[in-house]
Design a protein that fits this description.
Helix content is about 30%, strand content about 25%. The protein is of the alpha/beta class. The strands form two sheets. It has a seven-stranded mixed sheet, with helices on one face. Strands 10-9-8-11-12-14-13 form a seven-stranded mixed sheet, sandwiched between helices. Helix 5 crosses helix 6. The longest helix is centred in the N-terminal third of the chain and has 20 residues. The protein binds S-adenosylmethionine (SAM).
Amino acid sequence: MTVKTLEGLEEVLAREIQEIGGSDIVKGLRAVHFTGDNAMIYRANYRLRTAIRIFKQIDTFKFSNMDDFYVKCMKIRWELLMNLNDSFVIQSTVIQSEFFKNSMFASLKLKDAIADRFRQRTGSRPSVDTTDPDIIFHIHIAGSNCTISIDSSGESLHKRGYRQSQGEAPLNEVLAAGLLLLAGWEGKSDFYDPMCGSGTIPIEAALMARNIPPGKFRKNFAFMTWKDFDRELYDSIREEVEPTEFGFRIYAGDINASGMLTAKSNARNARVFNVISFSAGDFAASDLQLEGALIMMNPPYGERIRLDDTAGLYEKIGHTLKHRFTGNTAWILSSSPEHFHKIGLKSSSKIKLYNGALECSYQKFDLFEGKRKMLVKKEL
Ligand SMILES: C[S@@+](CC[C@H](N)C(=O)[O-])C[C@H]1O[C@@H](n2cnc3c(N)ncnc32)[C@H](O)[C@@H]1O
């Protein structure tokens, strides 16, 4: 199986795969490969928080020219994978191929092979549907190597099903879950996101803390249209996970009071409203008393959300953390080194991540006083 993820989350995804029982785990770029049966495919789609999409490998071969490619594709027993009346689509990635100058051409060649095999056997062929196909195949060609896979997820797995409305610049749910796992969040302390927008980070934090799987609210996965889909097995995999009690509190704030309504409604959809305390207001005026908590925020970068005084906002964040939240740990995701410079605190860890196409840094700040002293870069 190949599990796609976001760049920088490969390590946490590999750990997640290990926890659900995957074997032969190998990390790649924006992907992790592992071995497992159909039960593992269902489990992986239902439980992996940092997976974007999961592919099951059908075949892998070398080819010497386009005819050879077609013949090898014709030999695959497509009739075991789909019915004549199933619609399908082929997505392809081609890297440095002397035979396929563009990926569309590889898709067409494979489509011909599938259609011809069915026609030979039944006199008829399944049809292609690019908008709502039953089955999604994927070809990956690198030089003369070809791997053909079937997409088991369908819609990207970041679409959990709880976020029906969103504010400005919402975080991808997979990225939010990745931020939490990178920070070591296990639901063993209080948690605070003072700039929660549509609530993605606190909701993902609450789902983890209560052991609610990310697939809980999703109605469809692509594997449900597979010929061998086993509903009973899928139901038993859903029952493997028991929600747990969470003995701490999650706090979520935002200066935009109307945006908080969105966050609240998303939290209700995710059935975690009762563990999150929402309160609208400026982070700089927050009167929360926290000790040993994990603080996480994704402030505006001044790119997608325009700001009058970006530097001032980051200075305020640093000042508030330093003066109001000692005794806690903070993690901040932002785009520019200049923003971190304005925070004025020295980070103890830095991780490169991407928020969409935007390169970001995710930094940790240990807000402890005393012997280790809070690492202040300059007096604010
Ligand atoms: C990039 S968005 C956060 C998006 C959020 N992570 C999500 O998934 O929807 C930044 C948020 O910071 C909020 N914000 C800006 N300045 C703030 C301040 N001083 N105090 C609290 N929230 C603030 C904005 O209203 C905005 O919702």
